[in-house]
Design brief:
By secondary structure, the protein is α+β, with helices and mostly antiparallel strands. 22% of the residues lie in helices and 20% in strands. The chain contains eight helices and 14 strands. The radius of gyration is 19 Å and the shape is globular.
């Protein structure tokens, strides 16, 4: 679903793939010498390009920093958006929830699934990044719980989507340290004839949602394997030498709103996504001095 969207009863779900380049500001994804301000400037250009593609204000994108790792949630309401209009603010909670039109919530990932739970009756969505470590802590279930805790959503009204993530090609050479709940993981981590431990991440997430009483026909799991699909970034593939897959794509959701009054800037007019200045695609504006490599 590279750069495309799907509509579920007024909610738009999207995954960028690598269409807009890296969607993260970590130094390891940029050329040596890029300052924090350089990286932020590049990232902002990518967000604006994504926003124009989606038909939203690319500044109003929010993600959870997941400092608690126990299912805490933060609602992105109108007051919060007004207070932090440029998005991407420090949100210590694990899950973000919104019903505000035009506001994007999601997470930059590579191999990890993002779980989106949508109350189709009350028109409110919750989103949480679910790494293997967080699946071990039942984060997929906690994303659905966030809807109940914030809006008393009924199980039968919740639709869930699991984003592109690592498929069965994800392996470890030993039992993963993050798999603490061995009774749970023994169904999804199997030792193959090759001596490697193969991880079925998609089934693990799906079955946690089933255990959370989400109906089977209201759970959709992306068939995309980020490790093998050239349109997505992947930690595992990068670790195994595919440097071009080093980066983060973004998976998220929003309720559509007419895009009005967003000023056009030099950055917006000069975006060039065909240039590659490092091991992964980087968006940049040739007219912006801020993006020059610093000495």
């Amino acid at each position: 679903m590279k750069g495309e969207m799907k509509m579920i009863k007024n909610l738009k779900i999207f995954e960028t793939g690598n269409k807009f380049g890296n969607m993260n500001t970590a130094a390891k994804f940029y050329p040596e010498g890029y300052s924090a301000n350089d990286r932020k400037a590049v990232h902002n250009i990518a967000r604006r390009a994504l926003g124009r593609d989606l038909g939203v204000d690319g500044r109003k994108m929010y993600m959870a920093d997941q400092l608690h790792k126990r299912g805490t949630w933060k609602e992105i309401d109108k007051e919060y958006v007004e207070a932090y209009p440029n998005g991407w603010s420090d949100i210590s909670e694990d899950i973000v929830v919104t019903k505000v039109p035009g506001v994007v919530i999601g997470h930059p990932v590579a191999d990890c699934p993002v779980v989106m739970a949508y109350d189709t009756k009350q028109k409110v969505v919750a989103v949480g990044h679910c790494s293997a470590e967080l699946i071990d802590k039942k984060m997929p279930m906690l994303v659905a719980d966030a809807l109940y805790n914030s809006y008393r959503s009924k199980d039968e009204d919740i639709y869930t989507y699991v984003s592109a993530c690592a498929g069965n090609s994800w392996t470890y050479d030993k039992w993963p340290n993050w798999a603490k709940e061995q009774k749970f993981w023994e169904k999804y981590i199997t030792e193959g004839k090759d001596g490697l431990f193969h991880i079925d991440l998609k089934s693990a997430v799906r079955n946690q949602l089933l255990d959370r009483n989400i109906a089977p026909n209201r759970i959709e799991v992306s068939p995309i394997d980020t490790i093998t699909d050239d349109n997505f970034y992947s930690n595992s593939a990068t670790f195994n030498g595919q440097i071009q897959k080093n980066g983060r794509h973004f998976a998220g959701a929003f309720f559509p709103e007419e895009l009005l009054g967003i000023p056009e800037t030099v950055s917006d007019r000069t975006i060039d996504i065909t240039k590659t200045t490092t091991h992964c695609p980087v968006l940049f504006s040739p007219d912006e001095k801020v993006l020059k490599k610093t000495k």
